[in-house]
């Protein structure tokens, strides 16, 4: 196959993805402008041939490719930010255990060559079984803190300062904001104790043979109980179908905590902390909604509903 030119590679980048990145912060706009040249260079240097439709995340492009041996792989081009700078070192640490195998990487340019996996757990029909499948991955992924990874608790403290500055202007009940600030200070007082994924939910877990493997980690050191909340704000339609969203949220929460053996109090408080951080982010002008939603108000409501559901989780006072 003849080497792709940057002009050829531009055709591999979905126009909607390129337009969204170009309309963001200047660094993102510069990255997507340079992306065709990066794609062409990596495919040439790594002897990869495109083989399928491109996929996009919020800040990443993934191309199905064949390597020099004809093996189907996924090559990922990530826009590197403060909260995902640990992606490649985390994948290296995991070494394919509980996660996709990292075949090759270019950390400076945010490029990963990964094993090709199957369908996402998002498509698994049984939501409770899917939840427990993700929680079961924690034992492989949550390793002792690694010095080469950023401290996730430092990131959270910065986000909490943004929430504190909003104060009563935050678009959430003040009691939840106060709960998040109080609990967040306690939870982040010490550096993170374990390697965590940071965004582990059903779309970031793919089929591998008879099991499952994680992809797309943020990758930092933090409290393992921080990992719970993305499982709660995704597959929301399953919670709504239950007829009692609050009770369904708590059932899912307990499924994660019980399967992974997490501290119930810390997990509960982390849910409120993360949800109020989301609220603070959403208060920024032009901020996109989370969880793939189009409506900022729907995203705010979802986070407030999650925090509200945590009020009914009673835990014993520590001895």
From TrEMBL:
What is a GO molecular function of this protein? phosphotransferase activity, alcohol group as acceptor
**What biological process terms from GO does the record include?**
secondary metabolic process
Family annotation (Gene3D superfamilies):
3.90.1200.10
The UniProt entry, under InterPro entries, shows: Kinase-like_dom_sf, NH2Glyco/OHUrea_AB-resist_kin
Q: Name the SUPFAM superfamilies on file.
A: Protein kinase-like (PK-like)
Q: Which Pfam families match?
A: APH_6_hur
In which domain of life is the source organism classified?
Bacteria
The name of this protein is Aminoglycoside resistance protein
Species = Propioniciclava coleopterorum
